[in-house]
Amino acid sequence: MSPSPSDDLWIRRFRPAPGAAERLVCFPHAGGSASFYLPVSTALAPGVDVVAVQYPGRQDRRREPGPTSIAELADRVAEALAAWTDRPLTFFGHSMGAVVAFEVARRMERSGTGPVRLFASGRRAPSRVRDERVHTLDDAGVIAELRALSGTDAQFLEDEELLRMVLPAIRSDYRAVETYRCEPGAAVRCPVTVLTGDADPKTSLDEARDWERHTLAGADVRVFPGGHFFLSERPADVLAVLTEHFAATASRTG
């Protein structure tokens, strides 16, 4: 099966690696975009073909309404990824992206095209619910949340025109993830590696460990120094974990 063109509506491929034996699919956080993973694509190519999901409501899709629910978003992404299953897939999702990746994996496993591993970064287990209502705050409240998590460029937060353009998508993302409720007993068949920051206000170590309840193939937890966006603070360490994974899969299939 041939992959979709690089300008696919849902899937972005910044550094095509047609000779790579495996593909990494990256899922952005709430308010994030596919370009967040450009450094990952640059670092892993040409050994790994890296693609990133572009949710509606941002960048070149800013005229589209943002996602209404994680379930709807997962349905659409799973459909889009059906054209990218010509080689083994590994999923990596950060924060909201981890939940989306989990739900997309469940859908794709039904057709036998699920990932070989899911990396769940910066997100508590799907069944661990907190009463979070960022999506109900006014614009100032949403912006304060973005500042607190330190995942958004401070310069960007000072640009009122840009903020007005993206706040609807950010609010839509938060609504989708904050109203998400995992189906009882939901689990993927692939192993899960959980990445978490030791000072992440959004995920405790106990909540991270609970991912083991959502996989039939075992879970391991990697703890990094840092907060919710530890992966931006320690990119080399996160890339090392991914490189280790792809080296292991290559040795098993080589």
Key terms for this structure?
single chain; Rossmann fold; globular; 9 helices; alpha/beta; 7 strands
Shape: globular
Number of strand elements: 7
CATH superfamily: Alpha/Beta hydrolase fold, catalytic domain
Q: Stretches where pLDDT falls below 50 for ≥5 residues?
A: none
Domain module count:
1
Structural class: alpha/beta
Distance between the termini: 21 Å
Q: Considering DSSP H and I runs of 4 or more, what fraction of the residues is helical?
A: 25-40%
Estimate the mean pLDDT confidence.
90
> How does CATH name the architecture?
3-Layer(aba) Sandwich
Strand order of the largest sheet: 1-3-2-4-5-6-7
Could you please say which CATH topology applies here? Rossmann fold
Written as H for each helix and E for each strand, in order along the chain, the element string is EEHEHEHEHHHEHEHH
Radius of gyration: 17 Å
Name the CATH class: Alpha Beta
What summary fits the major beta sheet? 7 strands, mixed
Q: What is the count of DSSP helices, taking H or I runs of 4+ residues?
A: 9
Question: Strand fraction band?
Answer: 5-15%
At a glance:
This protein has helices spanning 38-44, 70-81, 96-109, 139-149, 154-157, 160-178, 205-209, 230-233, 235-253, and strands at residues 11-12, 22-27, 48-53, 89-94, 117-121, 192-197, 219-224. It has a single domain (11-253), classed as Alpha/Beta hydrolase fold, catalytic domain (Rossmann fold, 3-Layer(aba) Sandwich), CATH 3.40.50.1820. The protein contains nine helices and seven strands.
